[in-house]
Amino acid sequence: MTLAPGERTSWEAAKFETSMHRFVLVREADFGVALVNDSIYGYDTTREVADDAITTNVRLSLLRAPRFPDPDTEHGVHVITVGMVIGADVAEATRAGIELNAPATTVRGGNDVEPLVAVEGEGIIVSGVKLADDGSGDVIVRVYESLGRRTVGSLKVGFEHREVREVTLIEDDLEGARIGSELKLRPFEVRTVRITR
User: For residue range 77-103, what is the model confidence (pLDDT) as tens digits?
Assistant: First the structure.
């Protein structure tokens, strides 16, 4: 391992590693490069300045392989998929990360299948749709803002329902919860809504 300036030991280098969720993006004002992956690996970023030029290095840690408490940790065959997207912005990096982690599935049949839920609004992504944990039959939808800016949109529900309201991440009721299909999200905000049937 090559140590960055200011790092004296491998432990100092490792403490700056961050977990990567689908992608990491290194970007200037008009050009970017995204490193996308099929899981959650660690990475670290360093910058070097030489001859008035700045070089950014991104290193991807594929395996940790500690010796304690299990000396056989991560031994064996591993299949790891990564990709690089040249010229990416935040939207392109997000799209590529989602495509790598959840490739499209083709379902053949006699009729088109309409989505249970959809969103309108730039940068709003549906990250999960599931039945409520309490067995009520209500539907839980998790959305997030992916571009790092405030946005307004709406949730479109493709089935009969009585109410759409915000809940906590663990599906508990919120005091003063937002009710309705309108979505107002802050940068990178995650929102969980409950659709009562």
Answer: 888 888 999 999 999 999 999 999 888
Q: Determine contact, residues 156/120, Cβ cutoff 8 Å.
A: yes
pLDDT of residue 183: 95
In 3-state terms, what secondary structure has residue 20? Answer: coil
Kindly report, residue by residue over 15-32, the tens digit of the pLDDT: 666 666 788 888 888 899
Contacts 24+ apart (CB under 8 A), 140-143: 140/167, 140/171, 140/192, 140/193, 140/194, 140/195, 141/117, 141/192, 141/193, 141/195, 142/169, 142/190, 142/191, 142/192, 142/193, 143/119, 143/183, 143/185, 143/190, 143/191, 143/193
Contact yes or no for 136/121 (Cβ under 8 A): no
